[in-house]
Design brief:
Strand content of chain B: 15-25%
Radius of gyration of chain C: 22 Å
Helix content of chain C: over 70%
Oligomer: heterotrimer
Radius of gyration of chain B: 21 Å
CATH class of the largest domain in chain B: Alpha Beta
Largest sheet of chain B: 7 strands, mixed
CATH architecture of the largest domain in chain B: 3-Layer(aba) Sandwich
Number of strands of chain B: 13
Largest sheet of chain C: none
Helix content of chain B: 25-40%
Structural class of chain B: alpha/beta
Structural class of chain C: mainly alpha
CATH superfamily of the largest domain in chain B: Vaccinia Virus protein VP39
Number of domains of chain B: 2
Distance between the termini of chain B: 52 Å
Number of helices of chain C: 8
Chains: A alpha/beta, B alpha/beta, C mainly alpha
Chain lengths: 267, 388, 144
C-alpha cells in the first residue's frame, strides 16, 4: 500500500522550496525532475511526466499554464489512462510518493478521484508577492527571448491578469481543503520561513515516515522577499474577492498552527 | 378573472377528410381552416399548415401522416380517434404512422375513456395529452375541440405584476395553467402550441442523445435513476423508457406537481421548498438535469440548486443543464436573468467545488428568435461512491 | 431582485455572450477530437501559439548548445546546420518585423525544423551520446 502526498500551490508561492525540503526528507517526487532556471536557482522539483500530463490537459482545453478563469476541463480517455499509468508505476515502486506542480491546483479533484487516499500540502503566499514574483520572471524571460511572448504580453497588457490567476488557483485549493479537510494541511510560506516544522507536522498528522530535515538546509532565506507589497488592482470587485480568499487561507494555516501548539491529534 | 390572450391569433386547421361537408357546415367559430381529403397533396398541405397553430385530424383513415415531415412536424396534432373500433385494430393501422410518433405536445381526442386508457398505456402517453370529447362524430368533436382550444388561449396568466420573484411567479403560473393549458405553463406563456412545440423539438434534438449517452454506460438490467429540477408537468419524463427508468421530478408549483402526477402515475413528483433543498438522499440519481429553469432564478438560488443536484447525483453520474446563455432582461416582463456560459461555468465549478469534468457542450439556436441562444452543458461527477 | 443579477443587456453584451458560448463549444469540440492540428486558414489558438513560440526558443537553445559544444566545428561544416543557424540565430530582427500571418508560418517552420533536427541527432552513434543528456530527452519527449 502506498501513500501519496501532493504539494499544491500557485506559481511562485514557495512550493519549490517546500518540495526541496520534502525531497530531502524522503518524499519521492518523480523519475525525471525538471532543470533549474535562473529564477528558481534551487530547481523546480517538477516531474517531467506530471508536468507534461497537466500541460496536455490544459492544451486540450485550449489553455496554457496561465489560467485566469475557473476551469471546467474536458479530460479525454487517453489522459485518464496516462494518469492511471503514472499512478500505477509509482505505487508499485514507492512506499511514499508525490509530486509538485503549480498546474495541479486546477486538477486536484482529478487526482483525488484516482487517489482517494492522497494527502495534500497546500502552500500559499501573499498575492502581492506571488504576482510580483511572476511579473519579475516574465519580464526577464521576455527580455532574454525565452518562452512565449504571447503569454508574457498578457501580463503586461492586463494589469489584473496575475491577480486573477492567483485567485483562481487559490480558490481551487480552498475548495479542495473545504471538501477534504482530513486530507489537507495548509501552510504559508511565512510559516516555513519562521521555522514551522513541516516534516514533523506531516508525520504527526498522517504518519508518513518522512525523515526530519532542518529547514535551513533546504530553504535559502535570501531567495524570497518577505515584505508584503501594495497590490495594484484595477477591478475593485476582484480586489475584494482576493482579500476574502487570502483571509480564508490564513484561517486554514491558523488552524494548522493551532493544532501544532496544542498538540491535539487531528481526528 | 381577467383574460389575457396569447399574442398570436389561434388558427387551428381541421383536416376533415371525407367529412369536410359536415364539418364545414357545423358552424365552427373564430379563425380556422377546414381541409378535405382532396386538399392534402404535399404542397397544398404545407401551404395550408403555414399559418396553423394546431392541426386537428378528424379523419385519421384518409390523412397522409407521412407528409408531416421537416418543418411541418412542428405543428402540434390533435388526433380524433375513430369511433366503434378497438385499440388493437387502431394500433395495427395507425401505430407506426401516427401513435408512436406522437410527442408530448401532440394530443388525442377521444370519446371512449377505455379506448384512451388502452392506447395511453400502449404508447406511454401522458394523461394531459387527452382532449375529452362527449361526441366522437367529427362535426361535433370539432366544435368541442375548438372551444377547448379557445379556452386554453384565453386563460389568465400572471405576467410580471410587480417585481419578478421566481418562486412566487412560477407557483402562480403553474397553479393557473398546468391543469388547463400545460404548454403555456411550461414553455412560453405568450405563445400558442405551435411555437412551444417547435421550441420543445429543438431542445429534444439536443437532449435525447445526451440522455442516451448518460444512460449508455450502465448495464441494461440496472434501472436508470433520473431527477429533473423544475419538472413542470413532466414533459421530459416522456423522453425516457418507462421500463428502464425511475424518473423523479421536483417543482415549486403545486399545480404543476399535481398535473405531472396525473400525466405519469408510474413516476414520482415532489414539491420543492423555497430553500432549494432536494428531498432526496446523497448519491440517489444517475442523472440530474434542468431545462430552462436555472436562467429564471437569481444567482444564490442557482448556486443552491446546482450544489444540491451535485449532492444527490452518484459519482460517475451526470448533471445536465439546458439554459439560455444569450438573452434575458430585454423587457420589463422578462423572467430570464442574463448569464453568459462563462459565468455559469464559474458558478458550476464553485458550487461543485470543482468535482466535475466536462462531457458535452452544444449551442442551441431557436428558429423564432435571432437573439436567444441556448446551450446544453453536460458534466460528470468525480469521486468515489460513498453509498452502495 | 438583485440589481447585479437582473440588468438589461445591450447588443454588445449579447454579442459577447454569444461569442463566449460559441468559443466554449469550439474548444470542447477540439478537445474531444483529441486536439487535432489547426485547419489551414483558421485563427490560431493561444495554446498553439504558445507551443510554437516555445518550440522556436527550444530550437535556438539546441542550436546554440551544439555550436558551443565539442561538436561545434564539425556541425558548422554541415550545410543544413549552417542554414538553421542563419535562419534562427543570426536574423532575430527579421522575425520581429513579420506580420502575424508570416510569423505563424515562420514558427510552424521552426517547429518542423526542430522535429527534423531532433530525429537526426537521435540516430546512430551520435544519438547514443545525445540521449544521455536529460535536456535532450526532455525535448524528444515533448516534440517527437
Amino acid at each position: 500500500m502506498s501513500d501519496q502526498l501532493i504539494i499544491a500551490g500557485f506559481h511562485r508561492s514557495g512550493t519549490s522550496a517546500t518540495a526541496r525540503l520534502l525531497h530531502r526528507a524522503g518524499l519521492f517526487l518523480g523519475y525525471e525532475l525538471l532543470e533549474a532556471l535562473p529564477s528558481n536557482p534551487y530547481g523546480h522539483f517538477e516531474d517531467r511526466e506530471i508536468v507534461n500530463l497537466h500541460t496536455r490537459i490544459l492544451a486540450d482545453n485550449d489553455q496554457t499554464w496561465a489560467v485566469d478563469e475557473p476551469l471546467l476541463p474536458f479530460v479525454g480517455q487517453q489522459r485518464w489512462q496516462l494518469m492511471q499509468r503514472i499512478i500505477d508505476r509509482r505505487n508499485s515502486e514507492h512506499r511514499l510518493w508525490g509530486f509538485k506542480d503549480p498546474r495541479a491546483c486546477l486538477f486536484m479533484m482529478l487526482w483525488k478521484h484516482l487517489l482517494p487516499g492522497a494527502k495534500v500540502l497546500i502552500v500559499y503566499r501573499h498575492f502581492s508577492n506571488s504576482t510580483y514574483s511572476l511579473g519579475q520572471r516574465h519580464s526577464s524571460d521576455m527580455f532574454l527571448g525565452r518562452g512565449s511572448a504571447h503569454v508574457h504580453r498578457r501580463f503586461w497588457e492586463d494589469p489584473d491578469f496575475a491577480l486573477r490567476m492567483w485567485l483562481v488557483h487559490n480558490n481551487a485549493l480552498l475548495a479542495f481543503a473545504r471538501t477534504f479537510p482530513q486530507d489537507t494541511m495548509t501552510i504559508s510560506l511565512d510559516m516555513i520561513r519562521d521555522g514551522f516544522p513541516v516534516v514533523w507536522a506531516l508525520n504527526r498528522r498522517w504518519n508518513l515516515g518522512l525523515e526530519d530535515v532542518p529547514i535551513a538546509e533546504a530553504f535559502d532565506q535570501s531567495i524570497s522577499m518577505r515584505r508584503v507589497r501594495r497590490q495594484p488592482v484595477s477591478d475593485q470587485e476582484l480586489g475584494e474577492k482576493v482579500r476574502d480568499t487570502w483571509r480564508r487561507l490564513e484561517e486554514l494555516s491558523g488552524q494548522t498552527e493551532m493544532v501544532l501548539r496544542k498538540e491535539v491529534p487531528v481526528v | 378573472m381577467e383574460s389575457i390572450p396569447t399574442d398570436r391569433p389561434e388558427h387551428p386547421v381541421f383536416y376533415a377528410g371525407r367529412f369536410s361537408e359536415e364539418v364545414s357546415g357545423a358552424g365552427l367559430p373564430g379563425d380556422h381552416t377546414v381541409l378535405s381529403d382532396w386538399e392534402v397533396l404535399p404542397a397544398q398541405l404545407a401551404s395550408a399548415l403555414e399559418p396553423a397553430s394546431i392541426l386537428v385530424v378528424l379523419d385519421m383513415f384518409s390523412f397522409p401522416f407521412e407528409s408531416l415531415a421537416g418543418d411541418l412536424a412542428d405543428v402540434p396534432l390533435i388526433l380524433l380517434l375513430p369511433t366503434g373500433l378497438d385499440a388493437n385494430f387502431l394500433a395495427t393501422v395507425f401505430g407506426t404512422a401516427a401513435f408512436s410518433r406522437l410527442g408530448y405536445f401532440d394530443r388525442v381526442a377521444a370519446a371512449d375513456d377505455d379506448l384512451w386508457d388502452e392506447l395511453r398505456r400502449r404508447y406511454d402517453l401522458a394523461q394531459g395529452q387527452l382532449v375529452e370529447v362527449e361526441d366522437g362524430r367529427p362535426e361535433h368533436a370539432a366544435l368541442e375541440i375548438r372551444a377547448a382550444l379557445e379556452a386554453e388561449s384565453m386563460l389568465y396568466a400572471p405576467l410580471g405584476e410587480g417585481a419578478y420573484e421566481a418562486n412566487t411567479y412560477w407557483s402562480e403560473r403553474g397553479d393557473a395553467l398546468a391543469g388547463r393549458a400545460p404548454h403555456r405553463a411550461i414553455c412560453s406563456v405568450n405563445h400558442g402550441p405551435k411555437f412551444n412545440k417547435a421550441i420543445h423539438r429543438v431542445q429534444e434534438k439536443a437532449l435525447s442523445p445526451q440522455f442516451a449517452a448518460a444512460r449508455g454506460t450502465q448495464a441494461e438490467e440496472v434501472p436508470f435513476d433520473v431527477l429533473e429540477i423544475g419538472a413542470g408537468v413532466g414533459r421530459w419524463a416522456a423522453s425516457f423508457e418507462p421500463a428502464k427508468t425511475r424518473f423523479t421530478g421536483v417543482d415549486i408549483s403545486e399545480g404543476m406537481v399535481e398535473a405531472a402526477r396525473k400525466n405519469f402515475p408510474q413516476y414520482r413528483f415532489d414539491m420543492l421548498g423555497e430553500d432549494s433543498v432536494l428531498p432526496y438522499g446523497d448519491e440517489s440519481f444517475d442523472l440530474s438535469f434542468s431545462v430552462t429553469v436555472m436562467h429564471h432564478n437569481p444567482t444564490p438560488t442557482k448556486r443552491a440548486l446546482i450544489s444540491e443536484m451535485w449532492r444527490v447525483t452518484r459519482p460517475g453520474g451526470h448533471l445536465m443543464f439546458l439554459e439560455d446563455f444569450v438573452s434575458g432582461g430585454w423587457s420589463t416582463t422578462s423572467t430570464v436573468y442574463p448569464m453568459s456560459v462563462n459565468e455559469f461555468v464559474g458558478l458550476l465549478v464553485e458550487a461543485t467545488a470543482g468535482q466535475v469534468v466536462l462531457e458535452h457542450v452544444e449551442s442551441i439556436r431557436y428558429q423564432h428568435d435571432d437573439f436567444t441562444r441556448g446551450g446544453l452543458l453536460s458534466v460528470s461527477k468525480l469521486g468515489v461512491a460513498r453509498t452502495w | 431582485m438583485s440589481k447585479e443579477d437582473f440588468y438589461t443587456p445591450t447588443d454588445l453584451d449579447r454579442l459577447r455572450m454569444e461569442n463566449e458560448l460559441l468559443a466554449f463549444e469550439v474548444r470542447f469540440l477540439k478537445a474531444r477530437s483529441g486536439g487535432q492540428p489547426e485547419i489551414a486558414g483558421s485563427p490560431i489558438s493561444l495554446s498553439r501559439m504558445t507551443y510554437l513560440e516555445e518550440a522556436e526558443t527550444d530550437l535556438k537553445l539546441l542550436l546554440r548548445r551544439i555550436q558551443n559544444s565539442p561538436l561545434g566545428p564539425v556541425a558548422r561544416t554541415n550545410k543544413n546546420f549552417r542554414t538553421l543557424n542563419e535562419r534562427y540565430l543570426k536574423q532575430p530582427d527579421k522575425a520581429m518585423g513579420m506580420s502575424p500571418a508570416q510569423r505563424t508560418v515562420y514558427l510552424e517552420g521552426a517547429e518542423r525544423d526542430l522535429v527534423l533536427l531532433l530525429r537526426r541527432l537521435g540516430r546512430g552513434p551520435l544519438g547514443v551520446v545525445f540521449s544521455r543528456r536529460k535536456s535532450f530527452r526532455t525535448l524528444q519527449e515533448r516534440y517527437l
